[in-house]
């Protein structure tokens, strides 16, 4: 499984982005500024991850999606590991993930990989996860 950068978003890639973020306007707000990566199995798109510089030495994973038929096979974990390695090689010090509090699947996915999750306030729209570089647990 290779993870490769891409610049133009194909229709298939956009469909995956919508799985993780159903707001087309939100996707439009970050897609052109983000580092974009996709992974395929047997020439079939199975996952995408978008990394957005938000502060000096900080990247945010703004979109991470794996096709439904390929979920629970370690692809999301490999994309997270790739993001951590890619960021570290480029001297980023912090990798953040934000997930809406209504997104239970992504919340459980990131929480189960031992990423730190702060308490959610009643007014919070997103949970922000700060993960020091290191091992990401895989199940």
TrEMBL record:
Looking at the record, the residues that make up the N-acetyltransferase domain are 1-134
Q: Which GO terms describe its molecular function?
A: acyltransferase activity, transferring groups other than amino-acyl groups
Entry protein name: N-acetyltransferase domain-containing protein
